[in-house]
Amino acid sequence: MPANHFDLVILGTGVAGLSAGIYAGRYRMKTLVIGEEFGGETASAGVIWNYPGVVSADGYELAKIMKGQAEALGVEIKNGKALTISKEEHCFHIITDKGEYRANGIIFAVGTHRRRLGLPNEKELTGRGVHYCVTCDGPVYSGKTIAIAGGGDASVKGANLAA
After folding, report:
1. 3-state DSSP helix/strand/coil % of the chain, to nearest 5
2. What angle do CA 161, 43, 94 make, to 5 degrees?
3. Non-local CB neighbours of 17 within 8 Å, separated by 6+ positions
4. What three-state secondary structure class fits 9?
5. Mind telling me the catalytic residues?
6. Which of 1, 4, 107, 163 is most buried as measured by Cβ atoms within 10 A of its Cβ?
7. What is the pTM of this model?
8. CA 75, CA 22: separation in Å to the nearest integer?
9. Phi and psi at residue 65, in whole multiples of 5°?
10. 5-28 as b/e: b if 16+ CB within 10 A
11. Phi and psi of 30, rounded to 5°?
């Protein structure tokens, strides 16, 4: 198999992409995980309280552990951005800003970006008082006065959960 041909290319270096890479590595698939933002939202979340089997962990450290586990299984992890993907006869052709790859299969684990409020210092306060997941972070503020921005029943449910 040529160096730039993989059994599987995973687009996204967040925890979903890294998890997929770990499992592909365990199946001894030649795997590349490529993405722009290492660790995704998890890496910037601060303390993670709801990861199965872990009471609490720093999001960035958790992503680093997952990256190390994937690499130990032979998975290549690269920083880069996919520019085009095309289907060829029996594989996919992926052009990135760092090179070209071919793969028998692709997993899209590109995640999402939270909609920000545009508050002063919002970026600096993310994970330190400003949060985007009531399920994840609401219990930290149990019994405290909080503000929730949002609409519909999700905000009401979030306020009830955090109460």
Report:
1. 35, 25, 40
2. 120
3. 10, 11, 33, 35, 40, 107, 109
4. strand
5. 133, 136-137
6. 107
7. 0.80
8. 8
9. -65, -45
10. ebbbbbbbbbbbbbebbbebbeee
11. -75, 115
